[in-house]
């Protein structure tokens, strides 16, 4: 199903085209098109609808769920300071998960038809069209499906009292991640910290795609040695 010298037609739905690129797929997705107008993915209108999500849907849908889980731990007798502690731990665990997924899953190299197709849906589309505002956050339907195994894993690894606060913290970390990710692409930060974070992330898209996997911070890039070199360091390499 992989075709030699295949040329993607950007005026047609892309998902079932990109697999034909074979080994050329990796080079193709890392030649970004910096247009705010996203491509069509599917011919089918319902499938196309499922791929598009406005950024504000994430806090509107998931923050009440976060509050519900945290409230459960309080109702089960966990003190406020301990709830705050486990929520913070949940957020920290999310940042590691965010980094790990981005580095090891979203940037896996594929060359088969179905490997390229699945990867494009997961993350390749974002690198090809990084300014597509309706495909910057994770679709809520997919998130809801993934929450069940993660919730069961948290219950397995902690106590019934702690689990809701820990899971609520992780989910809050995810909400912060998705909102931050959208802001880094479309926001206009005025202060130094968010401005530097925006530069850091856009550097990952437009200069060095195999470094700088952190979105909400560069913490785990520092820990695991995946900080991108500075422009001066890159010139001397």
From TrEMBL:
Pfam families according to UniProt: FA_hydroxylase
What are the required cofactors?
Zn(2+)
Q: Kind of enzyme, top EC level?
A: oxidoreductase
What positions does the domain Fatty acid hydroxylase occupy?
88-226
Instruction: Name the domain of life this protein comes from.
Output: Eukaryota
Residues folding into a coiled coil are: none
Q: Name one GO molecular function term.
A: dihydroceramide fatty acyl 2-hydroxylase activity
Q: Which compartments does it reside in?
A: Endoplasmic reticulum membrane
Q: How is this protein situated with respect to the membrane? A: Multi-pass membrane protein
List UniProt keywords, sorted A-Z: Endoplasmic reticulum, Fatty acid biosynthesis, Fatty acid metabolism, Lipid biosynthesis, Lipid metabolism, Membrane, Metal-binding, Oxidoreductase, Transmembrane, Transmembrane helix, Zinc
Q: EC number(s)?
A: 1.14.18.7
Residues passing through the membrane, by range: 49-71, 83-101, 160-177
Q: What is its main location?
A: endoplasmic reticulum
Give the family, as the similarity comment puts it: Belongs to the sterol desaturase family.
Could you tell me what this protein is called? Cytochrome P450
Q: Which organism is it from?
A: Stylosanthes scabra
